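Researcher: Checking consistency across runs. Here is TPM domain-containing protein again:
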Amino acid sequence: MKIGTKILILLLTLNFLSCKGIAQETETKKPKTEIDFSETEKSSIPKPIGIINDYGQIFTESQRTELSKILYDYDIETTRQIVVVTIDSIKPYNDIQKYATDLGQTWGVGTAEKNNGLTIVVCNPCRQIGIATGTGTELILTDEICKKVIEEKIIPEFKNGEFYSGIKKGVIELIEKWK
């Protein structure tokens, strides 16, 4: 294959990965009589920019590309979607797990019919990581499994300053357990 064709395929793949094509359920709003702070929290959630959302800028371009390929290939093969988000703050949230859950729901990670999404959120300055699963996903990837992956695969790499390696090892382990 010619180099020009390879570059064109790479650019088309990156362009495709940056598109958001996710089904979302709609819900009706009920009149509220009390102040709901969850809306304030949800308004602090950024807009998605792809399958890798490196707002915390902890990955290099080649790392983002490699991880995108792993996640995109898995999505195509299984229709299960994994999204990785790095951020500098979870404010106004106090709990990264709640933040990851709200972010996954707001973005519509996974398909609406199967609720088969998985959202990994890393806040490097906060020194926190959370994995949120859709209700279809948590039947296989339980909270215990996700916690074990964080503790045994991700955290040891993070302690060595190897953020990409930790996320990659964690993603690969989650994919293996999700088959």
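Researcher: Does this match what you'd expect to see?
Model: One thing to look at in this run: Helices lie at 3-17, 37-43, 61-78, 96-107, 143-159, 163-177.
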